[in-house]
Specification:
The structure holds 2 protein chains of 2 kinds. Chain A is mainly beta. Chain A has no helices and 12 strands. By secondary structure, chain B is mostly beta strands. Chain B has no helices and 11 strands. Chain B is globular and about 40 Å long. Classes of the chains: A mainly beta, B mainly beta. At the A-B interface, strand 6 and strand 10 of A face strand 10 of B.
Chain lengths: 112, 113
């Protein structure tokens, strides 16, 4: 079965510092990987995805993610965090039924 | 435009009531989804429609009844719900092709009293 794991329940970072939110995957075949963000009391917003091609994927709001096949990882990164980046982040994989299977989510808290 | 519109934003209903959640998209997507999300948990798939036909039902109780009247609309009919059904209900849509992005609406907050 296709699955993703987010090992951290929460990530704390100071504003202006780089941030990383971790995701590892377990899939058979080529992985289709996604990152979504959920602000308080809102729906999910698509940030970026990896389908094929360049291992460094750039997305919305200055976020990027690096696909690493040898480490089966797809970590979300941003060079300089903003307080407004504080939210719940979900990694997800497109499964064989063409639906999304989500990780448990990581809460990102950016302090001023 | 990548907009999925859900109404109502908030709904409070009694356990004997009948209500409906509505979802609309005008992106030409032919796959539409209902997910249920509890606070600070990942969304859980409930139903998938592909070309207006129900393709996936994740063993959801019959008190939830989905309907896809046309390619732009998706409804979720609610009847005799339980308090534990209180959650955020997310509608989403995508192209049917594998790998396409699934876009979510803002959700409908349901409280069952």
């Amino acid at each position: 079965a296709q699955s993703v794991a987010q090992p951290e329940d929460q990530v704390n970072v100071a504003e202006g510092n780089p941030l990383t939110v971790k995701c590892t995957y377990s899939v058979s075949g080529n992985p289709y990987l996604f990152w979504y963000v959920q602000y308080p009391n809102r729906g999910l917003q698509f940030l970026l995805k990896y389908i094929t091609g360049d291992n460094l994927v750039k997305g919305s709001y200055g976020f990027e993610a690096e696909f690493n096949k040898s480490q089966t990882s797809f970590h979300l990164k941003k060079p300089s965090a903003l307080v407004s980046d504080s939210a719940l982040y979900f990694c997800a994989v497109r499964d064989r039924r063409n639906t999304l299977t989500f990780g448990k989510g990581t809460m990102l808290l950016v302090s001023p | 435009d990548t907009e999925v519109t859900q109404t109502p934003k908030h709904l409070v209903m009694g356990m004997t009531n009948k209500k409906s959640l509505k979802c609309e998209q005008h992106m030409g997507h032919r796959a539409m989804y209902w997910y249920k999300q509890k606070a600070k948990k990942p969304p859980e798939l409930m139903f998938v429609y592909s070309y207006e036909k129900l393709s996936i039902n994740e063993s959801v109780p019959s008190r939830f009844s989905p309907e896809c009247p046309n390619s732009s609309l998706l409804n979720l009919h609610l009847h005799a719900l339980q308090p534990e059904d209180s959650a955020l209900y997310l509608c989403a849509s995508s192209q049917v092709t594998t790998g396409n992005t699934i876009y979510f609406g803002e959700g409908s907050w349901l409280t069952v009293v």
